[in-house]
Amino acid sequence: MIKISTLISLLLISAISSLNAAVYKGQKVYVDSCKGCHSGGQELAASKNMKTWEKIMDKKGEKLADIHLTSKKAEASWSYFNDRKFIKDSKHLEDFLVEYAKDSGNVPACN
Ligand code: HEC
Predict the structure, then answer these.
(1) How far is the CA of 41 from the centre of ligand 1 (A)?
(2) What is the pLDDT of residues 61-95, one digit of tens each?
């Protein structure tokens, strides 16, 4: 019995840390690719609820790319949103945005 519970805790720990790794990656993407135009990532994340982010980031961030590609003000981001790198980044970004969404219950850290 001890072995099984040890196994379960190990599984839980690794599941939690891989989730955190995804959120952390998304935060890094945000700092690298979004922060230049938008302010704090957690602030932006907290401006919408989880459902809204899931919709915006659906189909590999199609909607988010659209918002920028149809805005002249966001022209400096067009090369990024047209790049395959964004497709790769979009999943991590979604994890991060959903993690800190308005209704996620996660209070943004003061930084
Ligand atoms: C070159 C500057 C620039 C970069 C880089 C950029 N954005 Fe934007 N973003 C804008 C501008 C400008 C708008 C407003 C578009 C409009 O409404 O005309 C916008 C709009 C948005 C909106 C919609 C705002 C709302 O309240 O509905 C979201 C969400 C957003 N950006 C997220 C991101 C994320 C996430 C990234 C990084 C992957 C990013 N942006 C990168 C300039 C940028």
Answers:
(1) 11
(2) 999 999 999 999 999 999 999 999 999 999 999 99
